[in-house]
Prior knowledge:
Blueprint: H1 3-19, H2 24-30, H3 33-46, H4 51-68, H5 74-101, H6 109-112
Helix pairs in contact: 3-4, 3-5, 4-5
Amino acid sequence: MNSEERQRLDDWAAHLSSELGIASDEFRAAMDVEGILDLAGVAAHTVIRPAAPVTTFLVGYAAGLAAAAGTDPSSAMRSADALSRAALAAASNAGQAAAAAAPPPAVSSSDLAPESAAPSGSAPSGSAE
């Protein structure tokens, strides 16, 4: 993300937080844009793309509950990040194991010798004249 995009995102987040009644000092202290974007990316690649906004919503909700209870709201993000990364690693390992266990694709003689390799003037084997 370039500096103009980052500024637009920061402006939007500040405006939205204000409209939602989130105090700007509280917001700025808890906001980790890079961490949120990274978490969304991991969730999207681990599950499916729509998991990104769902994950970030749930983390935000959990962070709000934590803040209301007087505990560290960033713990929700750390927990979700650890869970997402573990799922991504498990999916990657499962894909590697499946690829290693799969037999090599079958190769037929037609895959090895293209039809143009037949001597000119001769009919390919098995064809009717």
